[in-house]
């Protein structure tokens, strides 16, 4: 079932949340809370998906400026996302390969392919670029 984007519903969501460039910790915390809620929401509407992308972009811009990080290894990012979402190694069997492949990827013994990064991005609803 395909849903079409409803600009009126999106405008109402934007008016309610009023996203803007994040300039304070309070605004950052508010944006994070809303993005987290949308990240784990089942059956997001297209409008919620658009708001989620906007919030993530604003959050990333704020974090880049205020919390610069060293480059993380893709498998470490995967480990973190798994822990944060309560995902088990067995949950990724079939998503990125056999149990052996999943184990090697999670433990950094095998690099994550572009196809696996795409599958992980879809599974966790994040950008596949996190895993490359």
Structure, explained:
This protein is an all-alpha fold and 132 residues long. It folds into two domains: 7-66; 74-131, 434 Repressor (Amino-terminal Domain). The protein has helices spanning 7-17, 25-39, 46-66, 74-85, 99-106, 114-124. The mean pLDDT is 91.
Which regions contain 5 or more consecutive residues with pLDDT less than 50?
Answer: none
Shape: globular
Span of the ends, CA to CA: 31 Å
Counting DSSP E segments of at least 2 residues, the number of strands comes to 0
Backbone CA Rg = 17 Å
- From the helix content, strand content and strand pairing, which structural class follows? mainly alpha
The number of distinct structural domains comes to 2
Strand proportion? under 5%
Tally of helical segments: 6
Please state the average pLDDT score.
91
Kindly state the percentage of residues in helix.
55-70%
N-to-C order of helices and strands: HHHHHH
State the major sheet: none
Which characteristics define this entry?
single chain; globular; 2 domains
Brief overview:
This protein has 132 residues and is mostly helical.
Secondary structure: elements and pairs:
Blueprint: H1 7-17, H2 25-39, H3 46-66, H4 74-85, H5 99-106, H6 114-124
Helix pairs in contact: 1-3, 2-3
